[in-house]
């Protein structure tokens, strides 16, 4: 009888829109491949450097995207970034925070970095999105261009 009552409560909550947001098991694989162009570099107090990047590419479940990234690096090679992916339809977007470490490649122009991303929300089909995974980026500082990959999970679109 208790099981029947619990089932009825879940059905009622779902029908009235009161159920909790998408559960962690509503995650789907997420892959992003993109390229970017450095739009500005600002040296900040305390040995910090802000790098602003305009990027575009393709991401699973979002499709073609464009967007800005702001990355703050310290003098020890650590970084933290905010990333916005704006879908080609202009309605769907994904917001991420990324952190990691810049690697020395012993090349005067090229640096690589590895890190982790956390999906912090979005709009349209990605409203309330969650997810996480790993990142790899390579930046040619001399040319001001780079590319990156993200691998992990994201909430199933329209599940929030």
Sequence-ordered SSE layout with sheet pairings:
Blueprint: H1 2-15, E1 27-44, E2 48-59, E3 63-73, E4 78-87, E5 93-104, E6 110-123, E7 131-140, E8 145-155
Antiparallel strand pairs: 1-2, 1-8, 2-3, 3-4, 4-5, 5-6, 6-7, 7-8
Summarize the structure.
This protein has 160 residues and is mainly beta. It has a single domain, classed as Porin (Beta Barrel), CATH 2.40.160.
Q: How is this structure best described in words?
A:
The chain has 160 residues and is mainly beta. The chain has a single domain (21-155), classed as Porin (Beta Barrel). 9% of the residues lie in helices and 61% in strands. The chain is built from 1 helix and 8 strands, in the order αββββββββ. It has one helix spanning 2-15; strands at 27-44, 48-59, 63-73, 78-87, 93-104, 110-123, 131-140, 145-155. An 8-stranded antiparallel β-barrel has the order 1-2-3-4-5-6-7-8. β4 and β5 (93-104) form a beta hairpin. The longest helix has 14 residues, at 2-15. The protein is elongated.
Q: What keyword list fits this structure?
A:
160 residues, mainly beta, Porin, 8-stranded antiparallel barrel, disordered N terminus
State the major sheet. 8 strands, antiparallel, barrel
How many DSSP E strands?
8
CATH fold topology = Porin
Poorly predicted ranges: 1-24
Mean pLDDT: 87
Strand content: over 45%
Order of helices and strands: HEEEEEEEE
Q: Regarding CATH, which class? A: Mainly Beta
The rounded Rg comes to 19 Å
Q: What count of structural domains?
A: 1
Q: Based on the structure given, which CATH architecture is correct?
A: Beta Barrel
- Helix tally equals 1
Helix content: under 10%
Give the distance, in angstroms, between the N- and C-terminal Cα atoms.
31 Å
Structural class: mainly beta
> Strand arrangement, largest sheet?
1-2-3-4-5-6-7-8
Described by the principal axes of the CA atoms, the overall outline is elongated
């Amino acid at each position: 009888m208790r099981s029947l009552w619990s089932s009825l409560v879940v059905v009622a909550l779902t029908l009235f829109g009161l159920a909790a947001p998408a559960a962690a098991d509503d995650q789907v694989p997420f892959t992003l491949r993109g390229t970017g162009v450095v739009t500005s570099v600002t040296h900040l107090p305390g040995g910090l450097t802000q790098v602003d990047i305009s990027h575009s590419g393709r991401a699973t479940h979002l499709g073609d995207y464009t967007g800005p990234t702001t990355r703050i690096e310290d003098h020890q090679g650590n970084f933290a970034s905010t990333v916005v992916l704006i879908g080609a339809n202009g309605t769907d977007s994904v917001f991420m925070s990324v952190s990691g470490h810049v690697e020395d490649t012993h090349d005067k122009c090229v640096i690589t970095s590895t890190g982790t991303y956390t999906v912090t929300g979005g709009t349209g089909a990605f409203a309330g999105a969650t997810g996480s995974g790993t990142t790899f980026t390579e930046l040619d500082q001399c040319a001001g261009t780079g590319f990156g990959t993200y691998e992990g999970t994201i909430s199933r679109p329209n599940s929030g």
